[in-house]
Amino acid sequence: MTPMSQIRSLCVYCGSSGRGRPSHHEAAMRLGGILAKAGVRLVYGGGRIGMMGLVADAVLAGGGEVVGIIPRFLDQVEVGHSGVSRLLVTENMHERKEKMAELSDAFLILPGGLGTLDETFEILTWKQLQLHDKPVVIADIDGYWQPLVSLIDRMIEENYAKPEHRELFRVVASVDEVLPALEAMPEFRTEVEAKWM
Fold first, then answer.
1. DSSP tag of 4
2. Taking the complete model, does pTM exceed 0.70, yes or no?
């Protein structure tokens, strides 16, 4: 088991759209500064646009390390961030998500769209199935993820999920609470595939 204090990489799932609320953009940039200051490497989807680009740029501006992972078809349409510390190009979306998970010690969900929701449910399902036991935190900026939390609670009420599944993740109200929330979570194991670093 690895103590939370040894978290070196945080995977951030967030939107590629730049059309969200200004407060969401501000949260992404603030998070980037927090990660850089704490010496926590950002692992993310490799884009230079939207929330993804904002958090990556903020980490880089603070002198931090950023690993982007992007499928080839997206990189070819010029949305890949060429300024990150390392940009890994995968053959498809499935490989992208697998590598993001492998290279991360914990996961954070910021506001986003269908892709972010897909990544969120997949990483929670993998945890439910005990394919990993890494911390998952949802940053509920401006109450954005309250409908998701309510949906999961409804699944539990209707017996499609178990009460303990509510413990698969922690919800915080701001990015300032992310690292303290991770520090308060139980220990976890981490296995990083060195060949990708």
1. G
2. yes
